[in-house]
Amino acid sequence: MAAMTTRRDTWRPTVRTETIGQVTVLTVRGRLGDAGVRDPALRAALTETRGTRALVVDLSGVDYLSSPGLALLETLAAAAAAAGQAIVVCGCTDPVRIALDLSGLSATLPCAATLDEAVARLTALMAIS
Predict the structure, then answer these.
(1) Does 36 reside within a domain?
(2) Radius of gyration of the chain measured on its C-alpha atoms
């Protein structure tokens, strides 16, 4: 039984929030499946970003993204758009990119290759507006 607990804890997403210039960065690690998206720490971190002007969601540490994870990202993107907040995801691993492409979410949620690229894109966007 202890092995299952360890595996579940390994798969549970973790989120680190930092600010780079005027951009808030959420670095997500773990799996964004059904159990992962219900994680209270993940939900709290996403909720805390509502007052920021620009948001990067770094998915380089995410190795699995299922329908509930896609729905969570879609909800986050819609909330950002409604609040006038610019959002970019970055560091999409192959499994994440495939899921975003198959769902059609990649057409509405900009993806940068690296964190530096995402921050630069948002910083330039804020300078224009």
Answers:
(1) yes
(2) 14
